[in-house]
Amino acid sequence: MTQHVLFVCLGNICRSPAAEGVFRSLCPQVTTDSAGTSGWHIGDAPYGPMQKVAKTRGHDLSDLRARQFKVTDFDSFDLIIAMDQSNLEDIEAMRPIGSETPVRLFTDYAPQTGMDHVPDPYYTRDFDGCLDLIEVSAAGLKAALDLD
Ligand code: 4NP
What we know:
Blueprint: E1 4-9, H1 15-26, E2 31-36, H2 48-56, H3 73-76, E3 79-82, H4 85-92, E4 103-105, H5 121-124, H6 127-144
Parallel strand pairs: 1-2, 1-3, 3-4
Helix pairs in contact: 1-6
The structure holds 4-nitrophenyl phosphate (4NP).
């Protein structure tokens, strides 16, 4: 059974903390964390505009702090969820020999959206659109994990 899920983006201040915040509301029985492939924002709280929009939807991200993805995450988590193809490739490049931990795109769980990545709102400034896609993907992930 999948009990430990890690969400990964580039900076770990917009998409992956939002994904973690939404998914932990939806599935409190699963332990979650998030990380960035970069170390640019280590120790930072989620980006202010992202926190603000998440809060209007009932997701408090204020306790989260950015950290960098590390090779031991392959052992610590049952499932690693990347926000885009670049994140996925950076994660796969660190996979230890013998590790079979699945790494999937978050949008794989939202085929009805036709999206193949979660666009980065740090650049697009579309925080609402990002959370729409994250909420649909989180619901799809919950269904895929067969959780109540
Ligand atoms: P995220 O967005 O990967 O969704 O956290 C970004 C946040 C910050 C930067 C890039 C992406 N940055 O260049 O600082």
